[in-house]
Amino acid sequence: MSTNPEEYGMLLGAHKSISGGVDKSVDRAAELNTNAMQIFSQNVRSWSTRELAEEEVDRFREKRKVHGIEYVVIHTSYLLNLATPKDELWEKSKDGLLEEISRADQLGVPAINTHIGAHTGSGLEKGLERLILALKEISQSKVFQNSSVEILLENTAGSGTTLGSDFSELGLVLGELGAGGRFGVCVDTCHGYAAGYDFSSAAGLDEVLEEFDSEIGLEQLKLIHLNDSVGELGSNKDRHAHIGRGNIGEAGFAAVVNDKHLRDLPFVLETPKEKLDGVEADRVNLDKVMELRQ
Fold it and tell me: Are 183 and 172 contacting, i.e. CB atoms less than 8 angstroms apart?
């Protein structure tokens, strides 16, 4: 079987490490012969930010051209919480998202993907209000206005007080931001399944997409995180599994990667990184996805 997603008409890749410099992520994607990838642009578990060196940025851009990495998305810091009732954290989270937009611009990356946060006890309505206000302020900033970077809001598994596990919540947020505002959605299959959306069959997927279209609009769907689920349907457990080896299963992923509404979107793996049968896990998972593509 070929290991080149272009031969399957796919934009397909995995999350790759930036250890040693952001340009090293391109080398790691190229080793897998992929044409898409996701990266962190900085340490996502710290508020301190290392500036990107000009030479590092130039190498990243050049390597992308050389290796044909057509699509790149930056995943934001896990520390951001745009729905928090705490003013200091809310301000830091807005600044953090603006910083990610600036870094994406430097690198020539078209989109950033972010978790939208948790209300931490203030309540769903208050959390959504806080989130919407933050995103409106960001969209009105000079950084955003002078950029072309898209912001993708990721669905969640629904644990704790996190927002975004229900498509109606994402639809409400995007509706408040207005059409054409460079905001969209990233759907994570593991998160969706854990939140009660059945990705495990073609029939289940049809129902999921019908609800997504009704609540949000399929035109707003910009990226798919391909992850199987350790947890059962509706478990609210955010535990990713290898493709076809969790509760979504091969039939579910075959439906996802071949669906007429989804097949032309970028697919990015966030599956576990340990080796499978002595082979790099990303290689095994990417090959499985291409095997399921028709």
Answer: no
User: ∠ CA 185-187-190 to the nearest 5 degrees?
Assistant: 155
Number of Cα atoms under 13 Å in the Cβ half of residue 221: 25
Structure tokens at 159: 């644990």
Q: Of the candidates 147, 140, 158, which has an alpha carbon nearest to the alpha carbon of residue 195?
A: 158
**Other C-beta atoms lying within 10 Å of the C-beta of residue 211:** 15
User: Beta-strand (E) ranges in 134-277?
Assistant: 150-154, 183-188, 221-226, 228-229, 240-241, 266-269
Crossing angle of helices 249-258 and 281-292, in 10° steps, is 70
Residue the block writes with tokens 């910083």: 99
**CB of 137 closer than 8 Å to CB of 182:** no
- CA-closest candidate to residue 75, choices 5, 17, 20, 161: 17
Question: Average of pLDDT values for 155-171?
Answer: 98
Give the span between the Cα atoms of 102 and 125, in whole angstroms: 30
Per-residue DSSP letter, 220: G
What confidence tens digit (pLDDT) does each residue in 106-154 have? 999 999 999 999 999 999 999 999 999 999 999 999 999 999 999 999 9
Mean pLDDT of the residues in the chain: 96
Q: Any idea what DSSP says for residue 118? A: B
Burial of 117 (0-12, 13-18, 19+ CB in 10 A): buried
Distance CA 4, CA 286 (A): 9
Query: Residue 147 corresponds to which tokens in the numbers above?
Result: 């950029």
**Residue 242 to residue 229: CA distance in whole angstroms:** 8
